[in-house]
Amino acid sequence: xxxxxxxxxxxxxxxxxxxxxxxxxxxxxxxxxxxxxxxxxxxxxxxxxxxxxxxxxxxxxxxxxxxxxxxxxxxxxxxxxxxxxxxxxxxxxxxxxxxxxxxxxxxxxxxxxxxxxxxxxxxxxxxxxxxxxxxxxxxxxxxxxxxxxxxxxxxxxxxxxxxxxxxxxxxxxxxxxxxxxxxxxxxxxxxxxxxxxxxxxxxxxxxxxxxxxxxxxxxxxxxxxxxxxxxxxxxxxxxxxxxxxxxxxxxxxxxxxxxxxxxxxxxxxxxxxxxxxxxxxxxxxxxxxxxxxxxxxxxxxxxxxxxxxxxxxxxxxxxxxxxxxxxxxxxxxxxxxxxxxxxxxxxxxxxxxxxxxxxxxxxxxxxxxxxxxxxxxxxxxxxxxxxxxxxxxxxxxxxxxxxxxxxxxxxxxxxxxxxxxxxxxxxxxxxxxxxxxxxxxxxxxxxxxxxxxxxxxxxxxxxxxxxxxxxxxxxxxxxxxxxxxxxxxxxxxxxxxxxxxxxxxxxxx
Amino acid sequence: xxxxxxxxxxxxxxxxxxxxxxxxxxxxxxxxxxxxxxxxxxxxxxxxxxxxxxxxxxxxxxxxxxxxxxxxxxxxxxxxxxxxxxxxxxxxxxxxxxxxxxxxxxxxxxxxxxxxxxxxxxxxxxxxxxxxxxxxxxxxxxxxxxxxxxxxxxxxxxxxxxxxxxxxxxxxxxxxxxxxxxxxxxxxxxxxxxxxxxxxxxxxxxxxxxxxxxxxxxxxxxxxxxxxxxxxxxxxxxxxxxxxxxxxxxxxxxxxxxxxxxxxxxxxxxxxxxxxxxxxxxxxxxxxxxxxxxxxxxxxxxxxxxxxxxxxxxxxxxxxxxxxxxxxxxxxxxxxxxxxxxxxxxxxxxxxxxxxxxxxxxxxxxxxxxxxxxxxxxxxxxxxxxxxxxxxxxxxxxxxxxxxxxxxxxxxxxxxxxxxxxxxxxxxxxxxxxxxxxxxxxxxxxxxxxxxxxxxx
Lengths: 509, 457
Known about the structure:
heterodimer; A: alpha+beta; 5-stranded mixed β-barrel; 22 strands; 37% strand; B: alpha+beta; 10-stranded mixed β-sheet; 6-stranded antiparallel β-sheet; 9 helices; 20% helix
């Protein structure tokens, strides 16, 4: 465990309770049966280098207050950038106006599932070094160093011609208060480091690239500063040779193949085909016009075979270093951990307080989140993770079971249909497996499947030592569009007879 | 909340007082937005927001280099301005050399409307939409969708005397209608909702749902396909995003030519198709000058305030231009070219109805979804058809068909297209969050590659 830090003093110094009192009183006086106020501050830093030279370094801060009300069973939402009690009250009245103006369109009465009251609660994520305490020059210098290591390499006669390096860091602080009496202050930090090397064959007019495997994490600057959290020295030293091998690798022969998928790739498949598919708002059509719906409809809950019996998937908002981990969600519901798929059977959804009641549950499992003070909270994804086998099964053990197949490492391209059936993924590295051993890389590989076919083809999962957290900063959903950061843990896993494409052939070449 | 113009003055005054930078730029954008969303014939979420973004860019000049520090804040309390300016100047002094350095543009004088109040919007803009929806909600079809309207006013100023202002209205309505297992989509982009007829959208949807009374299951394969404007927009927008000149020059782009250099000059099609961006495009007007907070391969903060003109990226079927900010253009000996926030393709003359009528057997798509790059060397994209694939037989739409996953490159689509329709305003489905201003033709592709069947409906 990393010891928790405190919440920044300048956030605690904001007139949180005065704003809450003003907003909640104004909303109630204007006719709201429920109101909540969220003060939301997001600090973000983006640093990008191209070939070791600074391309951009920007520090940004968004802050504002949001008021959500229920008036006669209808939502109303309004927000404002100014943190003043009079503005909070006016914003609350505007939220009531919005609800009243648009009430003619509401045909489903809004009700909230009960939740204990948490007064003066505080939660801070686990991180050691606040990235916003580190001078930009120091962060740029590390990225320059890492870029330089790659650019200096001439492994196997294939040079690194270009390197892109980037760091995205976010600190998110919220204060939430509602008319039930909860008041919650939280702070969390996340970082996303990335380096990508490119080798160019100018004569042929072709190029190839490979990205580092370091995932985004709910941690601080310690992720990049040295090798303790992520072994940058080893990865940067190995990457040029891997890219050189990939550039010269044979093109894959398309067909049905066994795959051993590394956690660095499988997390994204979990995200798209399980994480989104088990969102209740999607399952009942709330995203039908945009992000899409789900094949995992409520009538299948508890009965549908999602995958093979070795498939156990949890949703968890409490995992240390998880990007979706939090103390309380944006409706004041305490973070929880629960099952989505147990022994291959679909058993759970991700919910907020409204959807919990609609599903007949007594309590929300705490998945409400808004990415900005100017956006209304919606149901967002917990850290959805595939559980490892209880026994120690290594990745090499899984590879050893394959006669002719591919070991897939690192994520790259992803796409899935709007009901979460048909997906297609590529990766960073594809190693051919022959007679249970790795036998060089392949290129131009994509795998394509239907969700339940794919998860039912999962013959085995690795043990605890193969389990890793992957994740993304940019999960998109809703209109107006919102992004959310989320982690997915998983072990290596073995899948039988998956459809593998050759991307050159797919492109007609 | 003090006015945006006042913020500009405070920032520049503070920068001069602190004296920690040689030049300063400030961007202030005030945005008012209202939204309405519905699902299953009932409103789900809504909102009205007021927000501000302040960007302070400090530049420290050395004899042979420039160093830049950028801080962006949504804080509206004027007491934070000194710390924003100080942070920006501190960042500039400690930053390594900026690779895209160029002289700042000089003074233009304040435009006539500089001091005018910032316009806004509110939920009343949806009055007609709500009336139509309310009637639609009482019908047999299930309706889902989103309406939004925002008005953003940007003020750009610099210590070199630059003063520019622009107000950008953006909006749109999109509706997904379901009848049984059939699903259809229609959407429009708009600046002010005056030109939006929600009733007309609902009629279009009803027609398309009627086409789905007969359903056929089709296998994966290559099909003659009529791509309507929304689908062409989604593919061409990605093409436009991929036209960075530097990447092409360095050999790491689909626009890199074998043997070095770029593909500028390469003919893609004999059809007279021209793809361009133009801030003055009728009905698609957008910011006519550069106003960015960060640099990339295609834009530079040093170019802030520079006029954005019409750029023909593809002219009469030939790749004609790639994107270069000033510094990059100078480095590679290319013309400066910056994309406006819209995209137009012209060059066809047929109506979509005529294209359907002249199709013996083929597919008519509605929208594309979840488009991602698979192979950047060829710009191969994957994605899915969504909310309406229709079978055309003997010149008429005769049935709806299942959805497909496709693997196609927009470059290859242009190379293979056999007919283009008239250009019309359209709302891209996939990229509509970022790109609501587009006008595209329908395209006929003789052999569109449907890689596999999607069960999604």
